[in-house]
């Protein structure tokens, strides 16, 4: 019997300008379209009571904007974070519920690699979303399942 579940949605920011300072980079017009298409995809599929946590960079804020305006800006998701710091900040996997993280490479790819027990880091494409679900059971067993990988070209 299932005891608890937590969904983790990893959304890498959409395509951004090559500019400095890094935290102030804006989305390109292509990136704006990627963000809008993914927001449309998410709108019809996102779990209820989805908590949304976003890096404080301009490109992540612009990525999430077409989806919603009710999100939490977290420095623990910034470009200089570690996988452990990010996962701890959102309470993975014990907090329950569902969390959407809008963040950066390589952190998101490293989290995906850890959850999949991959031997090497993974690259999450700009604008793509990876959706994981963690379940724990009354008998103490757990499982983490990859529910979806959605590149921006498929939205």
Separation of termini?
Answer: 35 Å
Please provide the count of β strands: 6
Low-pLDDT regions = none
Helix content: 25-40%
Sheet-strand content, in percent, reads 25-35%
Q: What is the gyration radius calculated from CA atoms?
A: 15 Å
Number of helices: 4
Question: Roughly what is the average pLDDT, rounded to an integer?
Answer: 95
| Elements, N to C (H/E) | EHEHEHEHEE
Described by the principal axes of the CA atoms, the overall outline is globular
* Biggest sheet details: 6 strands, mixed
Could you give the order of strands across the largest sheet?
3-2-4-1-5-6
Secondary structural class = alpha/beta
Write a structural description.
- By secondary structure, this protein is an alpha/beta fold.
- The chain contains 4 helices and 6 strands; from the N terminus they run βαβαβαβαββ.
- The chain has helices at residues 29-43, 58-64, 83-90, 107-116; strands at residues 2-12, 50-54, 72-73, 97-103, 129-137, 142-150.
- Strands 3-2-4-1-5-6 form a 6-stranded mixed beta sheet.
- Strand 2 (50-54), helix 2 and strand 3 form a beta-alpha-beta unit.
- The longest helix has 15 residues, at 29-43.
- It is globular, with a radius of gyration of 15 Å.
